[in-house]
Amino acid sequence: MDKNPISLTVKCPICNHSLMDYSKLIRGKPSIKLYVKSRENVGILYLCSVYGCYDKHSDIEMVEGDIVELLCPVCKNNLKSKSVCNICGAPIFVLNLEAGGKLHACSRVDCRKHKVVFEDIYNDLTRYYVVNDYRSR
Fold first, then answer.
1. Backbone angles phi, psi at 122, to 5 degrees
2. CA–CA dist 99, 93 (Å, integer)
3. Which residue, 40, 106, 133, 137, has most beta carbons within 10 Å?
4. What is the longest distance spanned by two Cα atoms in the chain?
5. Domain range annotation of the chain
6. DSSP state, 63?
7. For residue 11, which of 121, 111, 130, 131 has the smallest C-alpha distance?
């Protein structure tokens, strides 16, 4: 992993509210805060915002292999998309990148399938590079 990783800044694709939690750091970066439903439990899930990092913290138990529902903590809408994971078949959830593009990730606990998608490749990728200041690298 990069020595000075850049965290992805994400927002809800439905209400456009930031999902970043600057008070709960994971690997020294703000975490992504979501509501999570797992079996009969509902709680808060904090995901590492560094692309390629799979660290997470939750106040409820999530069993490896279970499929969870992920919801925006502001509008409470389910973030599930129509897509399914090509590795395990679970629903994919989607978050918007503040800098342009979308983060797609699997909703099965401990499946590592995720990707960043740029719909308007030139504009989204240009905005992403400008926001993350790639000129100084």
1. -65, -55
2. 18
3. 106
4. 48
5. 10-136
6. -
7. 131
